[in-house]
Amino acid sequence: MKKRVLYLCIAVSALLCGCVTPQAIKEASTNHAQNLNQLQQSTETYRAQAASDYDRRIDLQKQAYIAQRVSSKIDALTENLIGAAAAAAQPTVDDKPSRDFITFAGELREEYRFEGDNFNFWLTAAGDDVDAKKKTITDQATALEQTLTTLKNGNNGGENDSDIRRREHALKGLRAALEATPDALAHVSAAVEFAKQKTLRLAKLDLLLQQIKVMKSFHAVVDDYLAIDATIDAGAIAKAAAAGSKMDLTGLTELQQVIGGK
């Protein structure tokens, strides 16, 4: 740190006197530019990895939620399948057990898809926690029931059949979400918390990336002056500040005030 301060003092003295910039100062400036590039690349890499890690954690909670919700249905489907196979154990050319197995597989796939959508619905519902989201879903279900009643009462010629089927399907999903057990909702709660952490961390990294870009823009002008041994006077500093102000300074309140002279 002391060496950097010394180099800076030497550079400022030399430039104000109109002297040739020492090579050590030029090299230090070049290294600083490289460091900023490396910092930007590292931050971008870390941001991508952090986002991926949080997505993985949320997906694990989703898979656990689906398993929790589907397990009881698998038991019921399996018992029906075994019962049908036992009933058809007598010598026969009937392939009903095979057909039942295919049906079972299809129903299982539908359950996984349905519960996966159910989990996603919990995450996207308005609210900061499970209780708030549950109230949102309850209100939506109530409003949808009222809409269905209106549609059915006015469906004299069957013109509302399509809308009714679509809304009945949506209502089924809402009711299924509200039937989730506390154990299943624990996975939703964990995923909600991970989503919050992801939002906060990525926001901080995005702010850091903005700051780095502003520093690079500012430094580029200074580095150009050093490269041609030009005096860094008030005009040069103003030019560098102008270059920095052209960057997106959203969230950088203090820097906006400095550059804007406020």
Question: Can you describe what's shown?
Answer:
This protein is an all-alpha fold and about 260 residues long. It has one domain. About 85% of the residues lie in helices and about 0% in strands. It starts with a helix and ends with a helix.
Layout of SSEs?
Blueprint: H1 2-16, H2 23-87, H3 96-124, H4 130-153, H5 161-178, H6 182-227, H7 234-245, H8 253-260
Quickly list its features.
elongated; mainly alpha; disordered N terminus; 262 residues; 0% strand; 8 helices
- The overall average pLDDT, rounded, is 77
Would you report the number of β strands?
0
| Total domains | 1
Instruction: Kindly provide the radius of gyration, computed on alpha-carbon positions and rounded to a whole number of angstroms.
Output: 32 Å
The number of helical runs is 8
> How much β-strand is present in the residues?
under 5%
Low-confidence stretches: 1-10
SSE run: HHHHHHHH
Q: State the secondary-structure class.
A: mainly alpha
Main sheet record: none
Termini distance?
30 Å
Helix amount, in percent? over 70%
Shape: elongated
